[in-house]
Design brief:
By secondary structure, the protein is of the alpha+beta class. The chain folds into two domains: 72 residues, no CATH class; 168 residues, Reverse transcriptase/Diguanylate cyclase domain (Alpha-Beta Plaits, 2-Layer Sandwich). The protein is 54% helix and 15% strand. The chain contains eight helices and six strands, in the order ααααβααββαβββα. The strands form two sheets. It has a four-stranded antiparallel β-sheet with strand order 2-3-1-6, sandwiched between helices. Strands 4-5 form a two-stranded antiparallel sheet. The longest helix has 32 residues.
Amino acid sequence: MADPSSNDDPFSGVSDMAGKAFVRASATHDKIPENVPGRAQMYATLQLADRLIGGGQHGMAHQILEGLNAAMEQTVALRAKNRSLQLTSIQDRLTGLPDRAGIMRYLENHVSKMERKNHAGVLSSDTRSVVVFVDLKDFKSVNDTYGAQYGDALLCAIADTLRENRRPDDFVGRLGGDEFIVVLNDIDPNAPIDGNNTALDVVLERLRYAVGRASINIDGQKLSRDAHIGFEVIEPDASFKNVASIIQRADKNRLEKKRIAAADAIEHPDLT
């Protein structure tokens, strides 16, 4: 194919639009990813136009290239639109966090990556990823008492808090309703911090505290909700092939902690 930048380029001195169209088409073609259907045919059309221009058939080359330009620009625009739609399809409209589909996709990719690293022998023997299930306490009463618009506002405030308080490599998504998923990456869950707490204990407590501090203002009063939290550690062998089971186990852990807390409250009531 002729090089438009070379001195012996057949476009030099050509006053018609064929040379300019060729350069424009070449530049547009380079923006199209390799795996786009029809890219090879577009390249072949460029080669044909190159030969036509080299043979002096500038008018015919110009017509071909104008049609090719339009087709390739549509392809580039369609790819951009598809990427935007794909992002929207995995994004929760209310909070802007990844939705259930986005969470599942993230976990599938993450578990696969862990499995590959484990097989390659480059996965740390100490650090893990931990899936945290966050469920807001008595959230239904917010909607029942104040209305759904205030419930939505509180969900957005909590989503913002989770987003702002996550570590750089962590992930946050909204599973649905008043349930959120946080994935803690590169954490040693059993690393001791003090005599009674591990690194995971500390991170979970910070997460619970952050959720409880998120609030909205209703007639001069702050409205907030605490959270029930459960978790599941993803082991290095990536043994959970079905990522839904990871979330289910984290939820089961949450329910068990909730049951224990309720039983403890009955046995040791707060009389203050």
